[in-house]
Every structure is written in structure tokens, then in C-alpha cells.
Amino acid sequence: MKRYFLLFIILFSFTQAQAQLFSKEKVQQSVDIDNKRWSWGYFLGFNSYDFNFKYKQNSFVLYDGLNDVNVQRNIGFNVGLLGNLKLHKNLDLRLQPGVNFASRGFYFPLKSSGLPSVKEENRYREINSTYIHVPLLLKINTNRLNNFRPFLIGGVSYSANLSSNEDNADDNYDGQFRMTTNNYNWEIGFGIDFYLYYFKFTPSIRGVFGFNDELIRDDSPNSQFTGNIDKMTTRAIFLNFTFQ
Asked: What's the CA gap between 134 and 41, in Å, rounded?
């Protein structure tokens, strides 16, 4: 159901963009909003979080052809506020703090050579995370065409994982998967501003790519769960709808 809803929103945005682009409409709406030095708003949206794993080349944990952790991506929810500073006619700086509710699942490799097998029922982990996400973004706008304005956006962000289990003494052998609390990312994406009668509506999509290693490893260096992982970082896609 969520996938159909997302598809509907994307098709709706594309239809509106096409109508604005090819129509002969000359009356511009929300004219003053782009003339303000500061503007404010809020956003709602969806996310899909993933993990990017890098593995040790000469790991002491040797799996039977199953080195990769298999990640299962789910749809999460974003909500937050927007503060926008106009730097130039075609350039804005924006702070977009929010709360992201995310869910990921993954399977550890099942067997290893020379070590006891990971039990089937202990392979799966479901990670439900709540992030305080604070991006600082540079927005590069095209010139406005009627009530339609595409843009590119990119920058850096900080995420505080409130569900990290970083200080938990238990590890994967006790059923606890641990991650770092403080994480840093870079982001890039694009979107379209639609100037409506009372406000500006903006659908946008961004890719989020983590900098730092987020994995808290098990106490045993020979752990079958984390022993062969060299680095684990977040990857995510955000689909946000901003009202400004």
C-alpha cells in the first residue's frame, strides 16, 4: 500500500510539473516568498535506510561463499522543520532538522569454515532506529518558470541514533546489535518548487551517505557476526514534501 501511495505522489508531482512547464499561465502565485531574506516551513516524508558493508580482505572468519550481510530495506517516516536563508537569487542555505523513524533488517552469513555455524534463528536482526537528523544544505535554484522551479540540493548532516545500544554490555551473542550514536553524512538530491496560492509546496528526493563506521563490534574479535566487517556505514533515500 505504501509503495502505491509513493507512486501516486511522484506521478502527481510529475503531472503538476508538466502542466506548469507547458501551460501558457502568466499569473504568478506566492510572488513574495522568494524575496524574503528568511523563510520557514515544515516537512513530512518517507525514508528507506540501508547499510553499506566493507569486508576485511584476510579475515580470520571465513564463510562458505556467503561473506555478504543481506540487508532488508523497509519504509520509514520523516517529520521536521525548515529554516531557509536567501543568499542570492538562485542560491539558498537551509537548515532542516527533523526526526526520522527507520527500520532495517538483515541476515548474517549462515556458515563458516572451522567455526560453529550461526544458528538459523539467530541470523536475523531487525533494527528499528529513531534519528535526530540535522542537515545543513545548499540549494541551487533555476530561474522561476510560471509557478514552477526545479533545483539541486546538497550538503552535510549530523544524525543522533537514539536507538543505537552503544552502551549496552550485551552483544550479538546475546541478541543485541550495537551501533554508534553520533553519525555524519553527506547528502545530494533534487526537487521542484510549486508556487501555490497560499504557500510553496516542494517534493524532493535526496540520497544520504554516511562517513563514519557505525558498527560497535562484538566483544570477541573472532565473532562470526562482526569479525569479518571492516566498516559499516548508512545509506538512505529520503522523499520529503515541504510546505513553506
From this structure: 15
Task: Report the alpha-carbon distance of residue 191 to residue 180 in Å, rounded.
Answer: 31
Instruction: Please report the pLDDT score of residue 124 as a whole number.
Output: 79
pLDDT digits (tens, 9 = 90+) for 82-127: 999 999 889 999 999 999 999 998 877 655 544 445 555 567 788 8
Hunting for cell 550514536 — which residue is that? 181
Single pTM value for the model: 0.81
> What's the alpha-carbon Rg for the chain, to the nearest Å?
22
Task: State yes or no: pLDDT of 130 exceeds 50.
Answer: yes
Mean pLDDT of the chain: 83
Q: Which grid cell sits at 202? A: 516542494
Does residue 12 contact residue 201 with C-beta atoms inside 8 Å? no
| Contacting residues for 182 by C-beta, under 8 A, at least 6 apart | 158, 159, 160, 161
131 closest CA partner among 170, 78, 90: 78
Residue 161: closest CA among 189, 188, 185, 137? 185
Residue in the structure block whose three cell numbers are 500500500: 1
Domain 38-197+211-243 has CATH 2.40.160: yes
